[in-house]
Amino acid sequence: MDRRRALTLGGLAVGGAAILPSAGAAGAGAARHSGHHGHGGTDPVRTVAAATVEPFGVALPVPPVLRPVYVGGDADLYQLPVRAGTTEILPGVATPVLGFDGRFVGPTIRARRGRAVALQVTNQLGHPTNVHLHGGFVPPAHDGHPMDVIAPGATRSYAYPNLQQAATLWYHDHAHHMEAEHIYRGLHGFYLISDDAEQALGLPSGQYDVPILLRDALIGADGSLVFDPADADNRPTVLANGKPQPYLRVAARRYRFRLLNGSLHRIFRLRLDRGQLIQIGTDGGLLPAPVAVSEVKLTPGERAEVVIDFAGQPVGTRVVLEDTSGPVVGFDVVGTATDDSRLPDRLIPLPALPTATVTRDLALSFDPAKVAFTINGQTYDATRVDARVVNGTTEIWRVTNLDTRFNIDHDFHLHMIQFRLLDRDGVPPAPGEAGWKDTVHVPPGSTVRVQATFSGFTGRYVYHCHFPEHSSFGMMAQLEVVNRTA
């Protein structure tokens, strides 16, 4: 079987998820809900794609910042409904979406280290959903475990202690078997943590600190988002903050951009057509020092923070952030502005790694016999614990992608804690991957080693491939952090 056939079989599992050995009731629910949300574009065979849009025809929107409904002494309360909505992705065309507050890119939550966030989420959809704070250090009851969902019409509260350093996180749906379609239809948003050490650096801030969620879509001629896991490569419209290849008017000064790959399947390889990308951060926070890079590669779920200095560009210049597939965002230099920001030679130091006491091996692969994506030959089972880790200990996880036969990319996302990439196929990470990570690319035939210290909370979390169409249909496992016994 070739790669196309393998992915098609994987896609067939979407409509019949109950055939997976571990699906059970959750699989039956996925079979009922997948493609039946009433939002159009659910019959890919008869779908006519929308006409292509010329790049740089619409402005890049910046997601609004969510305001707390209550401010306490050391915590803030936010309310966020999950509901269907309609938005204009392509100019002049209405598209039904699912969104946090009905928005195709949910509102940004700006939190501060040491100040807790309570998030009340009301499910106004006709089927279960939930919220996972991707990259967040949170107790298991508030992690958005795939089996811990919010019933239609119900409200639940998530508590985020924000004990970690400043970082670009994001939140998205994680309801098992439904997360891929839910994210695709719009259930994603930024969660940005700041702290004193970051603010003391003087990096670009305020209107010059811009989060950009990148993803792709197949949009039907009627404006519908077409969700077809069997044809994941056919999502030709590249979106930045929900708009196709938009432009952003900038001043001739430094900007900080927080780049997030919110797609299901696409790998972005980003570069500038002129000027230079200076990477300052990874998934879990700032790097020890700025790094000049020719390209930033992001697999689904990964983030990178970059600084672009437009000071050397004449007014009237367009600087293009482009992917291998074409333009992504056009930055139009329209004027000058005072720039009191800095780009220090040193950012946030990385601590020395403690000694690891356990090494685990994980193999990611597609199993054509099971028509499923697997970890160590098994599909996800919520009743099974695949790894027990002692609270406070450090482990090395070796993750190998066995899918050379089908040439399928995977990545690896670990809930509960940030990790450090030790090496890829024995080669130490490049400076741009040397910081704190929670998601890492694992190409076909490659092995990555990551090291994490599991300390703080006990209970059950998951780890999985963050190509959501892979994790939805098996490529996920369960981790339990336990206290040491005498």
TrEMBL record:
Q: Which residues form the signal peptide?
A: 1-25
Q: Which CDD domains match?
A: CuRO_3_CueO_FtsP
Task: Give the source's domain of life in one word.
Answer: Bacteria
Query: PROSITE patterns in the record, alphabetically?
Result: COPPER_BLUE, MULTICOPPER_OXIDASE2
Q: Which residues form the Plastocyanin-like domain?
A: 83-197, 369-482
Name the UniProt key words of this record, in alphabetical order: Copper, Metal-binding, Oxidoreductase, Signal
Against SUPFAM superfamilies, the record matches this protein to: Cupredoxins
Mind telling me which Pfam families this protein's record contains?
Cu-oxidase_2 (PF07731), Cu-oxidase_3 (PF07732)
State the InterPro entries in the record.
Answer: BlueCu_1_BS (IPR028871), Cu-oxidase-like_N (IPR011707), Cu-oxidase_C (IPR011706), Cu-oxidase_fam (IPR045087), Cu_oxidase_Cu_BS (IPR002355), Cupredoxin (IPR008972)
Write out the similarity annotation.
Belongs to the multicopper oxidase family.
Protein name according to UniProt: Multicopper oxidase domain-containing protein
Q: Which organism is it from?
A: Micromonospora cathayae
Q: What is the lineage of its organism?
A: Bacteria, Bacillati, Actinomycetota, Actinomycetes, Micromonosporales
